[in-house]
Design a protein that fits this description.
about 300 residues; mainly beta; Immunoglobulin-like; 2 domains; six-stranded mixed β-sheet; 1 helix; about 0% helix; globular; DUF4382 domain-containing protein; DUF4382; signal
């Protein structure tokens, strides 16, 4: 999961992760449905989280979630990288998986349709977006249908948020090895909505939505958590490694923060402070598979 909002030290203020107005937030159940599954099916759970942005609120009206399953077990892992992860499905021709193929099936998932506020949860929180039983096979795409009730709030002013040409379906490409497998037929995945990269301000002061969604897992990846004080330093956390992967967090008022979806290895934690406080960096923080690495409390000084 790569983010390119800024390099450490540029003083970016941001917020993180996702919530919903019509659904229980922070639902940690690993299944969106209690219905039994058939022998030719597998269970899927999709969680929604958020990456930071310069806004008070961002509302996304989610109406439907589907997954594209290749029932023949073929994979579409080669020849693309994260920059090809997500796009608007303008006419279904852009999505190669929507072309006729006897192996490919679009399955709808159970969801609570409604308006999700993408900036109300952060620091390890999430919400269960969709789930249920689908055909057994290799999942290659996720398709999210959005409604018309999308908006953002910036500096107390509400703005409508629309796609460039009125598109309503977001395609997210996934690899077969990017899912967490609780069991062979019980899979889960986190959708990380990058607000800062997804919202574009155009010349006339309006905003358009150009979705950028990445994915991460809990079992295969790790996390870093800690506490930064005082609050009036307005700290922004950047966590980065030698591969230039960079992730961000904005602590709670008590200073607590958590960044998930980190690859196994060594990471650095950079605290960008304001209001006269000095920046600080914690280096060589080890991240292990499926574990949270807790660093010591960081107290900033002027």
């Amino acid at each position: 999961m790569k983010n390119f909002l800024r390099k450490p030290g540029l003083g970016l203020v941001m917020v993180a992760v996702a919530a919903v107005s019509l659904m229980e937030a922070c639902n940690k159940d690993n299944s969106a449905s209690t219905k039994p599954i058939a022998a030719n099916q597998q269970k899927v759970s999709l969680y929604l989280s958020d990456d930071p942005g310069f806004f008070d609120k961002v509302f996304l009206d989610i109406r439907k979630v589907e997954v594209l399953v290749d029932t023949c077990g073929k994979t579409d892992d080669e020849g693309w990288d994260d920059k090809d992860r997500c796009w608007w499905d303008e006419d279904h021709d852009h999505d190669r998986g929507s072309k006729p193929d006897s192996c490919q099936v679009w399955d709808s998932l159970d969801i609570h349709p409604g308006v999700y506020d993408l900036l109300t949860l952060r620091n390890g929180a999430d919400t269960l977006l969709a789930g249920g039983a689908v055909h057994k096979g290799t999942m290659e795409r996720i398709r999210i249908t959005v409604g018309d009730n999308n908006s953002l709030v910036k500096n107390g002013v509400t703005y409508p948020l629309k796609s460039v040409s009125g598109q309503s379906k977001i395609i997210v490409r996934v690899r077969h090895n990017e899912w967490d497998a609780l069991t062979t037929d019980n899979l889960q995945l986190w959708l990380d909505f990058d607000v800062q990269r997804s919202i574009i301000r155009v010349w006339d002061g309006k905003f358009i939505l150009r979705p950028f969604i990445n994915v991460f897992t809990i079992i295969k990846m790790g996390s870093i958590s800690g506490k930064v004080t005082p609050w009036d330093a307005y700290p922004v956390i950047s966590i980065y490694n030698s591969n230039k992967d960079t992730l961000y967090a904005l602590p709670w008022r008590d200073g607590g923060f958590k960044v998930r979806g980190l690859k196994v290895g060594s990471w650095n934690v950079f605290v960008n402070a304001s209001n006269g406080y000095k920046d600080t960096t914690v280096t060589n923080v080890s991240v292990e598979r499926g574990k949270d690495t807790r660093i010591g409390d960081i107290k900033l000084h002027k």
